From TrEMBL:
Transmembrane segments: 472-502
Species, as recorded: Cyphomyrmex costatus
The entry's keywords: Glycosyltransferase, Membrane, Metal-binding, Signal, Transferase, Transmembrane, Transmembrane helix, Zinc
Catalytic activity line of the entry: glucuronate acceptor + UDP-alpha-D-glucuronate = acceptor beta-D-glucuronoside + UDP + H(+)
A Gene Ontology term for the protein's cellular component: membrane
Protein origin, superkingdom: Eukaryota
One Pfam family in the UniProt entry: UDPGT
Protein name (record): UDP-glucuronosyltransferase
PROSITE patterns given in the database record: CARBOXYPEPT_ZN_2, UDPGT
Family of this protein: Belongs to the peptidase M14 family.
EC assignment: 2.4.1.17
């Protein structure tokens, strides 16, 4: 009894006290990026950590242990509000430039926000770690520097070329294509050449041409003795990456690069409207789910494209279609009867429904990973950014077909719909890939939680690679290879010289021998 009296309070103490205080800084306005942070932060809150979040997306419903500590103002509302013209304007620019400015320098202006400056002052109880998105605005690492706590990065895609060096993750350019290029893992000579040239260019463009302005903002708001943004990047202890071997291929990973691909695939807070559920239940011949993601308004696409959609999708009846349309009143008249429209969808619940046959998508990473997790084959119509590469990868894995927005015709769309609905290959490979994608020793959220706690327990250098202290030519052993070549050259020279010398000596002897013979 006495033992119990001691043990019980101890157990209660242990179960409540292992929670850490974690600050998440996610100023970027991309909703699809925030989906990953939201699920990660909620997952950590559920494990008993106290989570404070700075973002443009405050939670609609309160969540225990999760606080929206600062909500940043939004200038451009893009969720369900991106028209075809705006997409063409915004996204025609170089993607590295877009990340460095809209996703980088412009966000660093928030460092001057009084609420953000307040976060950099010591807290009681103190934070145990700071999480930031590693993308374009690594300037936010200054908060971790000020608080003297570990800095942890989250990447919503496979690493961009300029993010490898911060944790000395090997680039492996022979087998790992840059995620800004439309290449798959098996590359020929010219593709490898293209990979190395563009990767080097993108790194230089990001590191030297566009983001050094962040140094000025860091020092303006936090003092002249602050580290530069490149130095702050080197403080990152761990990067949680939205990638997985089944989708991104096999490559060497340093210990601080941890895959948590599909961490956002959670449907616990989605509500399924009874009307939509009934429509899906009643689709006895199956249905296709069609969306171009959280931002795009399909109704603003060119008339020609919408005419093709109406014609081809109308023809697949009795198979039905569910489409996300933010402003249905803007759609042309005569929507085929087998199409159900709604401004918002509980996407994972729709993808999980037993009657779903296929997913028509723009190829955004988050949505397509959800589709892969649910084993649903896809028709991809990529629009911008990484969507082309994503779809190409899925096509190479036989779980998707690709169509292009500029060249799509009723015939090509009919053919794709027919193949995805009738050829069992796509469904079967999608099902198998789903199994492989989810088959892990520890699920994504537990993996993230484990490594974050590991860094907090053992310190910010506990996963630091010794390669962090070497230059690029030391890492690739160019100095050693150069030295060995030099030694080989010397040995060869000595051998050549000696052989020549001996030969000449022999010749001399021979000559003097024959000379003396003649005299004799
Ligand atoms: C909130 O955190 C506490 C410990 O910090 C934990 O005991 C509790 O279970 C958490 N709440 C929820 C709903 O996860
Ligand atoms: C939608 O975007 C337009 C600009 O394209 C903007 O003027 C409008 O305010 C936005 N709507 C909302 C609800 O934010
Ligand atoms: C749809 O089908 C599921 C499974 O058969 C059932 O649990 C659910 O109640 C049905 N919903 C509606 C609205 O019919």
């Amino acid at each position: 009894m006495r033992v119990l009296l001691v043990i019980f309070p101890l157990l209660i103490y242990l179960s409540t006290c292992h929670g850490y205080r974690i600050l998440g800084l996610f100023p970027f306005q991309g909703k699809s990026h925030f989906v990953m942070f939201e699920h990660l932060m909620k997952g950590l809150a559920k494990k008993g950590h106290q989570i404070d979040v700075v973002s443009k997306f405050p939670l609609k419903k309160p969540y225990p242990n999760y606080t929206d500590i600062v909500t940043l103002p939004t200038t451009l509302r893009l969720v369900n509000n991106m028209s075809f013209e705006l997409m063409q304007q915004l996204l025609s620019s170089n993607p590295t430039y877009a990340v460095a400015t809209v996703g980088g320098n412009e966000l660093c202006e928030f460092l001057g926000n009084p609420e953000i400056k307040e976060l950099a002052k010591p807290k009681n109880p103190p934070y145990d770690a700071v999480l930031i998105e590693v993308f374009g605005a690594q300037c936010f690492g200054v908060i971790a520097h000020m608080l003297k706590v570990p800095l942890i990065g989250i990447s919503t895609t496979a690493l961009y070329p300029w993010l490898f060096d911060m944790i000395a993750q090997p680039e492996s350019l022979a087998i790992t294509p840059s995620n800004l290029l439309s290449l798959t893992e098996s590359m020929n000579f010219w593709q490898r050449l293209q990979n190395i040239v563009f990767t080097t260019y993108d790194k230089w463009y990001f590191n030297y041409l566009t983001t050094r302005e962040q140094d000025r903002m860091i020092r303006e708001h936090f003092g002249p003795d602050m580290p530069s943004v490149r130095e702050l990047e080197k403080k990152v202890s761990l990067v949680l990456i939205n990638s997985h071997i089944t989708l991104n291929g096999i490559q060497p990973k340093t210990a601080a690069a941890v895959d948590v691909g599909g961490i956002h695939v959670q449907d616990e807070d989605e509500t399924l409207q009874p009307e939509l559920e009934k429509w899906m239940n009643d689709s006895k011949d199956g249905f296709i789910y069609f969306t171009f993601g959280s931002m795009m308004m399909i109704e603003t696409f060119p008339r020609k494209f919408l005419t093709v959609l109406y014609a081809s999708l109308g023809k697949i009846a009795p198979v039905r279609v569910i489409m996300k349309i933010p402003k249905p009143e803007k759609l042309p008249a005569a929507l085929p009867e087998n199409i159900y429209i709604s401004p918002w969808m509980p996407q994972i619940k729709v993808l999980k429904h037993p009657n779903i046959k296929a997913f028509i998508t723009h190829g955004g990473l988050m949505g397509t990973q959800e589709s892969i997790a649910c084993g649903v084959p896809m028709i991809g119509i990529p629009l911008f950014a990484d969507q082309f590469t994503n779809i190409d990868r899925y096509v190479a894995r036989n779980i998707a077909l690709r169509l292009d927005i500029d060249t799509i015709t009723e015939e090509s769309f009919d053919a794709a719909l027919n193949a995805i609905l009738r050829d069992p290959l796509y469904r079967e490979t999608a099902r198998k890939l789903s199994q492989r994608f989810l088959d892990r020793p520890l699920n994504a959220i537990d993996t993230a939680n484990y490594w974050i706690e590991y860094i907090i327990r053992y310190g910010e250098d506990s996963l630091r690679s010794p390669a962090m202290d070497l230059t690029w030519w030391q890492i690739s052993l160019i100095d050693v290879i150069g030295f060995l070549l030099f030694c080989t050259a010397i040995v060869v020279a000595i051998v050549v010289f000696t052989v020549r010398f001996v030969k000449e000596m022999l010749n001399e002897n021979h000559k003097s021998l024959s000379y003396s013979k003649k005299i004799n």
